[in-house]
Amino acid sequence: MNRLLTASVLALATAIPAHAETFRWAATTDPQTMDPHAVSSAPVLGFLNNVYEGLVRRGRDMAIEPALATAWEPIGDGEGWRFTLREGVTFHDGAAFTADDVLFSYERASSEDSDVSSWFAPVSDVVVVDEFTVDILTSSPQPIFPDSIANWMIMDSDWAAANDAERPARDAENYATRNVNGTAAFMLESRQPDLETVLVPFDGWWGEVEHNITRAVFTPIQNSATAVAALLSGDIDLIDPVPVQDAARVNDADGVYVLDGIEARVIMLGYAHDHETLQNGGENIFADVRVRRAVGHAVNVPAILQAIMGGSAEAESQLVSPAMRGYSQPNAARPEYDQDLARSLIAEAGADGAEFTLSCPNDRYLNDEAVCQAIVGMLAQVGLNATLDAMPVSNYWPELRADNFDMYLLGWSPGTFDAEHPIRFLVHTNGERLGTWNFGGYSNPRIDEMLPMIQSEIDDTARQAMLDEAAAIIQEDVVYTPLYVQPLLWGVRDGIELTQRPDNFFILRWVSVGEAND
Predict the structure, then answer these.
(1) For 8-38, what is each residue's pLDDT tens digit?
(2) Which residues, at least 6 apart from 293, have a Cβ–Cβ distance to it below 8 Å?
(3) Rounded to whole angstroms, what are the CA distances from 50 to 159, 188, 509?
(4) For 68-141, where are the alpha helices, taking DSSP H only?
(5) Is 507 exposed, middle or buried (0-12, 13-18, 19+ CB in 10 A)?
(6) Contact assessment for residue 136 and residue 126, using Cβ atoms and an 8 Å cutoff
(7) How far is residue 34's CA from residue 443's CA, in Å, rounded to a whole number?
């Protein structure tokens, strides 16, 4: 079978087979926690969207739609938002969902222990109006606030209190790390971190059942050859991703196909802006913008896309792709590949021959370690001597949070599909609720000043002008070096109907398991 599908052609379930099935899928990264407020990463949030729910959610087309709230409307003149909650919803243990759970989940998710606290930076208060009405008050008008909380998941306050999990455990563990009590279509049956996680349907779910799954088994498989073999043998129904080098072979094999698209995720290089020294004790060359600028000219992105990504990715100049709201057209050009210019900048900065560490995950992004290895070679050609430190993502995030890096690889998918999102997380000065993924410690007063104005501006032209200014500052200061937009390559067994979204979240309630067509 030869069937290469694009992101605009989604395999949508149109008819649910009468029989029900076990569904098995695999990815390179295991979600490091079952706690929905502990880690703001796609493997965690994407997986937990199957067991927890928020007030709103994203549909197949990424549009915001009702979930635990049936309606929402602005309060007064930009004072906040009123959410009308869905009645008759129960958690997996049978407890009733009420406004008290929303208030508790706000307090938990906005706490200093949470990795998603920046979602609530503009929130001044949450008021329970009655059992099924909640007002979320903001310090300024927030026209895109409902979009910004699509991945804010609601927990049962009584369950959390009974199990001593009233606050998230980001780099440690508590009861919520391995256990779940959500309201979504699937329940957690068993959890063996890094080995296997099993979900089963929640019979008491409030929504309309579109799937026919009786049991869903997730297995993290870091070795790509093993994952492909499992797909081709029929042991696995879906793998994410298919290695670029194996996409054609998988697509030509009998009984399987490749579902291909472009993710919303931009892959970039980050820097230790505020470190006094490098990890080896040497002068921090990355505090000098000339060195950061040199990196942009030294990395041959087109060569990486062709040789490592098989031509399936797209070069990028900003922290969001052109498909995102607020993308800055005046700043669409990325640095030209120019080794001579890179050498000149490095010489001006007195950094020729500098030695440092490039930190990189080896199981998080598509071909991440291979990309980093190629970058090491390219930097060496212009006089920067990087040592690659590649590691599993479960170790990677703690190392970045502990400032154990000089330069690092990062991928970012904006949860709101808006250019404001990475400014809030990646660029704003790290502080209470903001800049929570700004590992390098970059700080710019103008960026900090503009962020609340961008968030509250309702005039699209004025808002875009501020986003253009922010994009120009980010490029001029080389806060990050954007490389490319990551492709989506899923290997799917024939007979499986599903939806591939550009956020790379895999939603089980849209999966139908049928008979394969040989």
Answers:
(1) 334 433 334 445 689 999 999 999 999 999 9
(2) 335, 345, 478
(3) 19, 9, 8
(4) 99-109
(5) buried
(6) yes
(7) 32
